[in-house]
């Protein structure tokens, strides 16, 4: 089985990604670490516990991590995920934060990877603050990973948060820079435009949410807000092209779960713009090799959408 460790800012698509991992028969989910992003980190922790409760998997340890970026900034994506991160559809019997582990997220990442050298795939679907802090404390960490799967960055300089910037990288550009430079392990990037070019059609979403299970009812409840938001004019423009939902984080997760999910990728050195009036946080792809970086990331270009739909269906079954 595959050992996964997941770092989230549990919004709606993070929840979907977590549920993919929980449903995968070949996956052992070693833990979930939480970080600021879509909403405050306390909400992220609560949302993660809600997802685990829905799936009867509260035994999976959840760790609280950084509450702001390396430089101390906070953003949120309330317009898309709701202020609470899960569509502002609260659950009065949500699990208490007392269920969180006492150990912090950064320490947990370092410990878990060191306890399973060469075996852990790290899936990051959020600003990369926890990962950046972890590699500063333990520089050997990347060499002990099986792989790193990130949802973040962009390849066509189309933004969803700033003109040119994708949310996870813009929310902590320094952290993204550190991770892309210092994690010299097999690295797979599900970038913003790629996810937009691989939407789940609305008809699929209806069938997906229409399954007669508690998981599907939970998803329908938290998904309503971002589904409506996705149909607004501004978001339609942002979403690059076409009709349907973009479950961004689920692509990085699906790639970590199933090696045959990625059909086509492009290996390039990548970095992040740290200055720039419009470009801070934008991913930079060094197609001509001017950065002199030996390490190249796999930029995901095409995936098996039929497989993806099957995995998504199974996640709510
Ligand atoms: C990313 O930003 C967040 O809002 C989503 O959860 C996803 O991780 C997309 O840019
Ligand atoms: Ca996310």
UniProtKB/TrEMBL annotation:
Top-rank taxon, per record: Eukaryota
Keywords associated with the record: Hydrolase
Annotated Gene3D superfamilies: Ribonucleoside hydrolase-like
Molecular function GO terms recorded: hydrolase activity, hydrolyzing N-glycosyl compounds
Alphabetized SUPFAM superfamilies for the sequence: Nucleoside hydrolase
The Inosine/uridine-preferring nucleoside hydrolase domain, residue ranges: 5-310
Membership in a protein family: Belongs to the IUNH family.
Protein name as annotated: Inosine-uridine preferring nucleoside hydrolase
Naturally occurring in which organism (per UniProt): Betta splendens
Taxonomic lineage from the root: Eukaryota, Metazoa, Chordata, Craniata, Vertebrata
Gene name of this polypeptide: si:dkey-4e7.3
